[in-house]
């Protein structure tokens, strides 16, 4: 191995930027431990992780989209339509759970492909494009079942939701670990990962060095949508119902906040997966704190906004 | 002795890992045009930023008109009478000329209301002072870069600037615009305004300035009256060694007769600039494209590389008609392209030097999409050494490197794809003399190994220095092909001026 000459020494500020998301998370957990009764018990921590499942899974996709210089505010609506499609196919058409799940993922991928096509090929602004799919997704989901909640019970699904890998690790946590590791390696170690950052950092230069920029953009929006659909299937199973109006409502905000608190810059070109994980857990920890202390929901929004501002302040580049 | 508008003593400034300025002195006298020169990374930009209050010096004293100041902000220095005009003009493109000038220092009424009528009058008189009559209600971006620069100057003057700092003001102007700008600068000097003028174009320094301050590696080399210097001695001071070996070297021998044709263009039109361009490039040939800005040279390169599509005409490689819809298709056929504007289209700023070099080669350096770090590092280190790229290491972020080293990294990126034809658009723009010489040397060496080079440059001397043949463009057409003895600056100018139409 050739020896590597020393790079610019890391400044204190840079080090702070790197660790800030984890410090913020620790601070919130510590605060929770103080104010939330029984927070330290394993059951609470486990519940918090289980509830954070959708935000973590979807923040991974959001982080990749944001790294390309885009944004996806349609993920909540994609959850809704995936959930309804999954429940309707499994219940009304009597399809198997697996087939219904595949169909739900397919419809999610379709939404992602529309986002990717409009952003990557037609170069429309991501926030407008995904605003449109956000409205279509939520609308279509409501139309499919006249806005009614689909409730269903499937013992296989319940068993799956309670399954513990090797008898100890809850399936949700197992999937979170796998997903984080896969996306982490994907953005760090692969050609795709470097192209992804290049596209977000300097689209024109990326094109001139031969990157198929459309394919990259299409891929991240499809991936982001599929992760939303995937999260929707698990949420549907956990809640034993599909609610077109409320499922995934405002979840895009939590995801974007998780990415921002994780220190991934909104302008694109950089992505931090582990910090995004910390950001997502921070968002969930705030929600848990608010719920378990009987604080009205509205306050959680205030607390979240304060946390975001604090996180952004410590990470400011100059 | 004239009054010193700015006096800086013992200025030092460090950044993590770099000592950008070390005990530098600088002074600017009233009514002089003072050149600040040095290679990239010599500390010119840092010194300017300290002077204008954008950076705070770690040590040293700054006096404005004899009074000690401790600048904390650009605004504060503007109030003291020091204004800056940057290379990328720092005005607001969508706002009107008068708004831009008013923004400088709005006289506000009740509740911060701006008196637009007065602002418009002020803008008009400011532009009139520069001898420009234009509609101040038009958005700034409707005007050419040259006019925008004039507006920036007007804005500085409306701030009652006593000193104006100009960082590479001519880099995107054509000859006529440069003449106008210089006339204006001289007029203002005669009215008592002082200028600090930063430029890589030494001819301009000799043309315009009375005094030169030379920096090298963050240290002051010296202050000199321009009359004490000639071209060689100035360059020698900048690079710290004798310049005679670097400047004015010509390519050995002339053209080597018949070459095998590699690439051919026939009747290329793009529906805008290009009016039917045809020529061929031989293997190992260095073909230069000369012409004015906007004559269609850049468009030719972009079409050849698949970055833009021709409306008519054909491209042949090895005699076979080819069409590139995307740059990646051209790359697959061993074409390479170094674009004109490094910052906009060249570097991928947040990525490391290593990734910027490897980006054209990632599939080759990876297995099933997973990049081999060892291979990537080896490739980057190989080219860092071969092209003498100066950086803290392969992991340094490229946007923290100097222009010359960035350009070398972009060359490395392409050379590592073993190209057969490399398209170079202004390969030495904004690059210091040392790096420039290295890059031109490299181009010659590569051509000797059979690489074809198609090179656009606005520095005709540079084309004359390295090219085997020069095509002269005017208004989207190739008007002349100059070889051997015909390759002179006079012939190029004559052709562009219209005398060589049938050459």
Outline the secondary-structure elements:
The complex is a heterodimer of chains A (318) and B (503).
Chain A lengths: L11 H24 L6 H26 L7 H17 L5 H25 L4 H19 L5 E2 L3 H8 L1 E2 L3 E2 H19 L1 H11 L1 H6 L4 H27 L1 E2 L8 H11 L11 H20 L4 H19 L3
Antiparallel strand pairs in A: 1-4, 2-3
Helix pairs in contact in A: 1-12, 1-13, 2-7, 2-10, 2-11, 2-12, 3-4, 3-5, 3-10, 4-5, 4-10, 7-8, 8-10, 11-12, 12-13
Chain B lengths: L3 E12 L2 E12 L3 E5 L6 H8 L7 E6 L2 E3 L4 H7 L1 E4 L11 H8 L11 H14 L15 H14 L4 E5 L7 H16 L3 E5 L3 H7 L2 E6 L2 E7 L5 H9 L21 E9 L5 E8 L3 E5 L6 H8 L7 E6 L2 E3 L4 H6 L2 E4 L3 H5 L6 H6 L7 E2 L2 E2 L1 H14 L16 H13 L5 E5 L7 H16 L3 E5 L3 H7 L2 E6 L2 E7 L5 H9 L6
Parallel strand pairs in B: 3-8, 3-9, 6-7, 7-8, 13-20, 13-21, 16-19, 19-20
Antiparallel strand pairs in B: 1-2, 1-4, 4-5, 9-10, 11-12, 11-14, 14-15, 17-18, 21-22
Helix pairs in contact in B: 3-4, 3-5, 4-5
Describe this structure in words.
The complex is a heterodimer of chains A (318) and B (503). With 318 residues, chain A is mainly alpha-helical. Chain A is built from 13 helices and four strands. Chain A has a single domain (52-315), classed as ABC transporter involved in vitamin B12 uptake, BtuC. In chain A, the strands form two sheets. Chain A has a two-stranded antiparallel ribbon with strand order 1-4. Chain A has a two-stranded antiparallel sheet with strand order 2-3. Chain A is globular, with a radius of gyration of 20 Å. The two termini of chain A are 36 Å apart. The relative contact order of chain A is 0.20. Chain B contains 17 helices and 22 strands. With 503 residues, chain B is an alpha/beta fold. In chain B, 33% of the residues lie in helices and 25% in strands. Chain B has three domains: 4-244, P-loop containing nucleotide triphosphate hydrolases (Rossmann fold), CATH 3.40.50.300; 248-334 and 419-503, Rossmann fold (3-Layer(aba) Sandwich); 346-418, no CATH class. Chain B has helices spanning 44-51, 74-80, 97-104, 116-129, 145-158, 175-190, 202-208, 231-239, 297-304, 327-332, 342-346, 353-358, 373-386, 403-415, 433-448, 460-466, 489-497; strands spanning 4-15, 18-29, 33-37, 59-64, 67-69, 82-85, 163-167, 194-198, 211-216, 219-225, 261-269, 275-282, 286-290, 312-317, 320-322, 335-338, 366-367, 370-371, 421-425, 452-456, 469-474, 477-483. The termini of chain B are far apart. The chains are: A mainly alpha (318), B alpha/beta (503). At the A-B interface, helix 8 and helix 9 of A face helix 10, helix 11, strand 18 and helix 13 of B.
């Amino acid at each position: 191995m050739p020896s590597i000459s020393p790079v610019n020494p890391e400044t204190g500020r840079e080090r702070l930027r790197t660790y800030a998301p984890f410090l913020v998370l620790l601070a919130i957990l510590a605060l929770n431990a103080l104010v939330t009764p029984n927070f330290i018990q394993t059951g609470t921590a486990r519940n918090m992780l289980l509830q954070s499942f959708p935000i973590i899974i979807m923040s991974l996709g959001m982080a990749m989209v944001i790294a390309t210089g885009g944004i996806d505010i349609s993920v909540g609506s994609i959850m809704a339509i995936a959930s309804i499609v999954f429940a309707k196919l499994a219940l009304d058409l009597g399809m198997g759970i697996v087939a219904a799940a595949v169909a739900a993922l397919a419809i999610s991928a379709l939404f992602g492909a529309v986002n990717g096509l409009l952003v990557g090929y037609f170069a429309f602004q991501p926030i407008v494009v995904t605003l449109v799919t956000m409205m279509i997704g939520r609308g279509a989901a409501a139309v499919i079942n006249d806005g009614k909640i689909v409730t269903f019970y499937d013992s296989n699904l319940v068993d799956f939701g309670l399954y513990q890998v090797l008898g100890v690790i809850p399936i949700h946590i197992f999937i979170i670990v796998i997903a984080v590791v896969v996306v982490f390696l994907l953005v760090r170690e692969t050609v795709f990962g470097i192209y992804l950052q290049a596209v977000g950092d300097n689209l024109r230069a990326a094109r001139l060095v031969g990157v198929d920029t459309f394919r990259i953009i299409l891929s991240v929006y499809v991936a982001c949508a599929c992760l939303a659909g995937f999260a929707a299937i698990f949420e549907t199973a956990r809640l034993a119902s599909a609610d077109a109006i409320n499922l995934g409502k405002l979840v895009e905000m939590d995801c974007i906040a998780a990415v921002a608190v994780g220190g991934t810059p909104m302008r694109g070109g950089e992505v931090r997966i582990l910090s995004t994980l910390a950001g997502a857990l921070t968002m969930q920890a705030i929600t848990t704190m608010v719920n378990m202390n009987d604080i009205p929901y509205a306050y959680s929004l205030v607390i979240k906004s304060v946390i975001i501002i604090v996180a952004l302040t410590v990470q400011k580049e100059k | 002795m004239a009054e010193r508008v700015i006096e800086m003593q013992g200025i030092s400034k460090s950044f993590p890992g770099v000592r950008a300025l070390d005990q530098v002195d600088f002074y600017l006298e009233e009514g002089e045009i003072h050149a600040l020169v040095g290679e990239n990374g010599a500390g010119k930009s840092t010194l300017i930023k300290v002077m204008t209050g954008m950076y705070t010096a770690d040590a040293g004293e700054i006096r404005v008109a004899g009074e000690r100041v401790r600048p904390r902000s650009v605004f504060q220095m503007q109030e003291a009478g020091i204004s800056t005009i940057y290379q990328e003009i720092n005005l607001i493109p969508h706002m009107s000329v008068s708004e831009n000038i008013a923004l400088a220092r709005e006289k506000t009424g009740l509740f911060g209301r701006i008196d637009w009528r007065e602002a418009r009058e002020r803008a008009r008189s400011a532009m009139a002072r520069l001898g420009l009559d234009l509609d101040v209600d038009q958005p700034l971006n409707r005007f050419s870069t040259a006019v925008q620069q004039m507006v920036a100057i007007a804005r500085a003057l409306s701030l009652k600037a006593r000193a104006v700092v100009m960082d590479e003001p001519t880099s995107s102007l054509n000859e006529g615009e440069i003449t106008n700008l210089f006339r204006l600068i001289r007029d203002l000097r005669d009215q008592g305004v002082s200028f600090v003028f930063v430029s890589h174009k030494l001819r301009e320094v000799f043309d315009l300035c009375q005094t030169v301050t030379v920096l090298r590696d963050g240290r002051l080399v010296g202050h000199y009256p321009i009359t004490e210097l000639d071209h060689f001695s100035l360059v020698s001071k900048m690079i710290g060694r004798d310049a005679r070996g670097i400047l004015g070297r010509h390519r050995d021998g002339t053209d080597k007769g018949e070459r095998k044709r590699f690439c051919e263009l026939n009747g290329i039109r793009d529906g805008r600039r290009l009016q039917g361009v045809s020529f061929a490039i031989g293997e190992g040939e260095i073909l230069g494209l000369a012409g004015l800005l906007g004559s269609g040279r850049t468009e030719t390169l972009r079409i050849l590389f698949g970055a833009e599509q021709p409306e008519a005409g054909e491209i042949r490689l090895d005699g076979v008609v080819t069409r590139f819809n995307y740059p990646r298709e051209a790359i697959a056929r061993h074409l390479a392209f170094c674009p004109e504007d490094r910052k906009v289209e060249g570097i991928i700023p947040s990525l490391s030097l290593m990734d910027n070099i490897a980006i054209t080669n990632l599939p080759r350096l990876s297995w099933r999409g997973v990049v081999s770090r060892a291979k990537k590092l080896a490739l980057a280190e190989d080219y860092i050494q071969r092209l003498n790229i100066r950086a803290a290491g392969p992991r340094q972020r490229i946007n923290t490197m100097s222009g010359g080293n960035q350009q070398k990294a972009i060359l490395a990126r392409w050379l590592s794809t073993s190209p057969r034809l490399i398209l170079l658009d202004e390969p030495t723009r904004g690059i210091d003399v040392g790096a420039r010489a290295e890059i031109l040397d490299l181009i010659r060496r590569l051509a000797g190994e059979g690489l074809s080079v198609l090179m656009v440059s606005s520095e005709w001397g540079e084309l004359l220095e390295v090219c085997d043949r020069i095509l002269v463009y005017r208004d989207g057409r190739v008007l002349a092909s100059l070889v051997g003895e015909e390759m002179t600056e006079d012939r190029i100018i004559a052709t562009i001026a219209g005398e060589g139409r049938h050459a």
